[in-house]
Amino acid sequence: MSVYEYLPAEIARLGVTRKAAGLVLGQVQTHARLSREREERARQGPAEILNLSELMIAMWECAEWERIAHVMTEQQMPVYVPGQDPACRPP
To answer: Which H or E run includes 74?
Structure first.
């Protein structure tokens, strides 16, 4: 599948999943905090199209880091393994 066939939200999700692989919960929580800060900075910027794109990417990435932290807590994962994440398993 060509990269152009993915939606921007899917690209953000896949990027976060790739970065999160092998991280412990504390590291994932740090990434979640940093992504919330990035989202907040994007919200404070001017309402230009580039800033709105930055805001959307920051929101998608933040939601994914927080989702992964939640999954790790619920599944009691010592490290994040995408194959053990119900959202990453093939249907």
So the answer is: helix 49-75
Name the more confident of 9 and 85.
Answer: 85
Closest CA to 65 of 43, 88, 34, 89: 34
Q: How far is CA 62 from CA 1, 4, 5, 55, 59, in A?
A: 25, 22, 22, 10, 5
Instruction: Enter the tokens of residue 89.
Output: 């398993």
Give the pLDDT confidence of 29-55 residue by residue, as tens digits: 999 999 999 999 888 877 665 566 888
* CB 82 within 8 Å of CB 11: no
The enclosing H or E element of 32 equals helix 25-44
